[in-house]
Design goal:
The chain is mainly α. It is built from 2 helices and no strands. The two termini are 23 Å apart.
Length: 41
Amino acid sequence: LGAWGGDFVLATGDHDTPSYFKGLGYDTVIPYKEMVMNQNN
């Protein structure tokens, strides 16, 4: 993960969780469904 130039956090929550992390200053929030490899994509 160092190739990303920083730390990586995997968090679970509900639909409000992305806005919580954005409010803490995390500019990049990627939903799980976008991050995992999907055979249909």
